[in-house]
Sequence to fold (185 residues):
Amino acid sequence: MSNPSNHLPIRMISHVVRGYGRGSKDLGIPTANVNLEKGVLSCSIVDYDTLPTGIYWGFARIGESSNNGAEVDSVLGRVHTAAISIGYNPTYNNKEKTVEPHLIADPKHPKRHASSTGETQFQDFYEKKIVLSIVGYLRPELPFEGLEKLVDAIKKDIIDSTELAKSCPPSIEAEKHWVADASCL
Ligand code: ADP
Ligand code: MG
Fold:
């Protein structure tokens, strides 16, 4: 497999589709499945098969950009740090590759600890436009023995993503700005 970092950053504009409903139901960590099949308005990588599998971090925005208008607590229009799974979810042995960001709310956001595992749980935003930049590689995608170990690993990914987003070099900061400003009309 090629070095995942060679592919970064990966910019995508698409919309959120339904997955298998496992992120929330089994794990308490929802992941917004990006539509790779059709309706991808833009992607800096043309062939999805070349996306190396693994866990990444980056920035994501749902819906049109908003500096004002949207409610302060809404997921819509704001840039969130995200922990992103790319792959086949070996614990579940999926057949199709997916790109699935978990959007992390700010520490004081009322939804930051709202999921059953104490992670971020917004309202559903299926069918909404998603703007995503994948900026860093965290770890390979591993099959875990049991959901508890998987949840522990994802919780660490969320901590790592949050820490990395706190002090970004200018090239990564630029991706955050792109996510904020990209038009998804
Ligand atoms: P699915 O298998 O349909 O993707 P999940 O259990 O993974 O189901 O839940 C994902 C859905 O939950 C997203 O599409 C979105 O509508 C909603 N959601 C709520 N909070 C978040 C969050 N913090 N990150 C990602 N998706 C979230
Ligand atoms: Mg999901």
